[in-house]
Write a structure and sequence with these properties.
About 25% of the residues lie in helices and about 25% in strands. The chain is α/β, with parallel strands linked by helices. The longest helix has 13 residues, at about 155-165.
Length: about 350
């Protein structure tokens, strides 16, 4: 079968690999659609970040080159011994977290904070940028017939957004700012309104992404036209209750912090290619809080319901659909160069 494998920075190759064999407790999936994630883009542009290159990942026993792709949906074609929750023909999406089940975080139910955390399609084990992949049964979630495979492929990034809202201190009626209207930022805007935010300010440069944010109900601020911190402070009479940082750009983290009110909160969702400096006194003197979130836990069923019922319009983010052979030029390079692109789906 064909698969897209990461060899190094700016080095992803579509090549023939052996079809994965079904093992005990695993499910073989024919991939329908797979999304290119911001994390994938970080690995392409500046990795390795999550991809194991010097030592095999302790949970997958894999090392680069690895098949990429962790946002995907498809149809079950075969199941291994002991699998009883799904069967061939089931339509599914995948929660791609590998966790050890033994560390303190896992024993506490915080499996996304596992000491050996990995992601299918980043840590090895296969990936969604392939015709077929196998995953442990625990990763598999069935989707309703009313849900398209395209929608289902966006369950994973939507889960990131909703988990970030749930981990924050947001209460109904609060105001919020989202810095960055890429896929996760736009999904965060939707999740904020679903969670009762009264007003959401979106800070974004791209005209196309600004329009999408506006269509979702956000008040858009262009940082090339005004100082976003001054503008938010003015419009809110002292700052938003909570800001969500979704760009991974160092200067924007400081803007996110400074846009919040006294005792306000900033939630970091981005994955970082380098460590950003912050003005600690701006946190200290206003008694602000800074929180980090990673991935999701125990949330996929709720996200699937929200998307299937039309309350989470994840499909609005799709700006391009491509074939696997086009994944570098029309996928990764397109996202690097064209800020009009939001979510690109790949059909293996």
């Amino acid at each position: 079968m064909k698969a897209a494998r990461w060899y190094g920075q700016k080095d992803i190759r579509v090549e023939e690999v052996t079809d994965p064999a079904v093992e005990q407790g695993k499910v073989k999936i024919k991939v329908a659609w797979a999304g290119i994630c911001g994390s994938d883009l970080h690995e392409y542009a500046a990795g390795p970040i999550f991809i194991p290159v010097k030592e095999k990942h302790p949970l997958t026993n894999d090392i680069a080159p690895i098949i990429m792709g962790h946002e995907f949906s498809g149809e079950v074609v075969e199941v291994g011994e002991g699998v009883d929750r799904v069967k061939p023909g089931d339509r599914v999406t995948v929660e791609p977290i590998y966790s050890c089940g033994k560390c303190k975080a896992c024993r506490s139910g915080l499996y996304n904070l596992c000491n050996q955390l990995g992601f299918h399609g980043l840590a090895g084990g296969g990936g969604g940028f392939a015709e077929y992949t196998t995953v442990p049964e625990v990763m598999v979630h069935k989707i309703p017939d009313s849900m398209s495979f395209e929608q289902a492929a966006l369950t994973e990034p939507a889960a990131v957004a909703l988990h970030a809202i749930r981990q924050s201190k947001l209460r109904a009626g609060d105001t919020a700012a989202v810095f960055g209207a890429g896929p996760i930022g736009l999904l965060t805007i939707q999740a904020l309104f679903l969670s009762g935010a009264s007003k959401v300010y979106a800070v974004e440069l791209s005209p196309e992404r600004k329009q999408l944010a506006s269509d979702l109900g956000a008040i858009v601020i262009d940082p090339s036209e005004v100082d976003p911190v001054e503008e938010i402070q003015k419009l809110t009479n002292g700052g938003v209750d909570i800001a969500y940082e979704v760009t991974g750009v160092p200067v924007v983290l400081q803007q996110s912090i400074d846009s919040t009110k006294l005792e306000g909160e900033t939630v970091i969702i981005s994955i970082w290619e380098s460590n950003p400096p912050i003005n600690a006194n701006n946190v200290l003197l206003k008694e602000r809080n800074v929180t980090g979130t990673i991935a999701y836990r125990d949330i996929f069923p709720a996200v699937i319901e929200l998307i299937a019922n039309g309350k989470f319009a994840a499909e609005k983010l799709i700006t391009k659909k491509i074939n696997l052979d086009e994944i570098v030029d029309e996928g990764f390079e397109s996202l690097m160069k064209e800020k009009s692109q939001v979510k690109i789906l790949v059909k293996p």
